[in-house]
Design goal:
Elements lengths: L10 H10 L8 E2 L1 H8 L3 H13 L3 E4 L3 E4 L4 H22 L5 H20 L2 H16 L5 H13 L4 H4 L3 H20 L2 H13 L10
Antiparallel strand pairs: 1-3, 2-3
Helix pairs in contact: 1-3, 2-3, 4-7, 4-10, 5-6, 5-9, 9-10
Length: 212
């Protein structure tokens, strides 16, 4: 079977996106040969990417066995969600002056795709369309390093689709949160936008057990 063309994003980001999207479960072993074939990469590139993800806490390296998806540490998760709030509020406020009618229409389309996936799609579809909405939003922030840090923090604080949305009601609330964010953007209301971003992130952990 021929390898796929080389992805435009760095290999580490491609693997992290797959983990974030639910393609790999917590504790699942990552076979380097499979990653080479699916990503069109060589052994050195894959190994380097996995080592980078290990440093970021997304992947665990077990000597003489290989790499596996890291399990969730609840204390770490709550701390990372707090960091996400700080980063994403700053990014949202920086993006606010750049949100025009075309941007609102674009974000509304992305929100609609998540809503459709919530009804008709799989767990992977929920994750993919949710990420597309948030990435689409932060494309408007002028500080690109801040946008990259948000992606990294989200990777580190990943919530598996079933944990993030354990019920259809949770999916509906997440979709409603997207619409409230868009409404705050349309109103150019920084205070409301801050409140909606903070609620959207912190409420994603509502169904998780408290940290020890």
């Amino acid at each position: 079977m021929a390898a796929k063309p080389r992805p435009k994003r760095p290999i580490a980001l491609e693997i992290a996106a797959g983990i974030r999207g639910g393609s790999y479960r917590a504790g699942e072993w990552l076979r380097q040969i499979d990653l080479e074939r699916s990503l069109g990469a060589n052994r050195f590139e894959v190994r380097t990417a996995l080592s980078e993800l290990t440093l970021r806490g997304i992947v665990e390296h077990v000597p003489f066995r290989g790499f596996r998806v890291a399990t969730i540490d609840m204390t770490r998760l709550h701390d990372l969600l707090a960091i996400r709030v700080l980063l994403e509020v700053d990014a949202a406020l920086a993006a606010l002056p750049r949100i025009d009618a075309a941007a609102l229409e674009h974000l509304s389309t992305l929100a609609g795709e998540f809503e459709d996936a919530a009804v008709n799609g799989s767990h992977a579809d929920w994750s993919r369309t949710n990420i597309a909405f948030h990435d689409g939003f932060y494309d408007y922030t002028p500080n690109r390093i801040l946008a990259e840090m948000i992606v990294e923090a989200r990777d580190r604080a990943r919530l598996w689709p079933k944990g993030l949305w354990p019920s259809f009601a949770a999916l509906q609330e997440s979709a409603a949160g997207h619409r409230r964010i868009i409404a705050a953007l349309a109103a150019q209301d920084g205070a409301q936008l801050t409140a909606e971003i903070r609620a959207h992130i912190t409420e994603s952990a509502v169904n998780l057990p408290d940290k020890a």
